[in-house]
Structure to design on (75 residues):
């Protein structure tokens, strides 16, 4: 399923929103393990990079002449 989320601006699909939500959940679960300091920072950076990769898909669809999908193709 790749629909947009109801009430959203339609930029991210339902699945993309879910991936970003799950990445945030993974961070929160890692935080709950007691991780602190550099380990937590590295984990947070990895989560942000993954979320940005997901959100870049919306930019590629909105501006196909400027950005490419992660598949390397134009939308």
């Amino acid at each position: 399923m790749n629909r947009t989320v109801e009430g959203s601006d339609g930029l991210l699909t339902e699945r993309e929103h879910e991936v970003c939500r799950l990445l945030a959940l993974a961070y929160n679960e890692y935080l709950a393990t007691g991780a602190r300091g550099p380990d937590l920072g590295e984990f947070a950076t990895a989560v942000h990079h993954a979320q940005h990769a997901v959100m870049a898909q919306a930019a590629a669809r909105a501006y196909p002449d400027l950005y490419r999908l992660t598949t390397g193709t134009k939308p």
The mean pLDDT is 86. DSSP finds two helices and no strands in the chain.
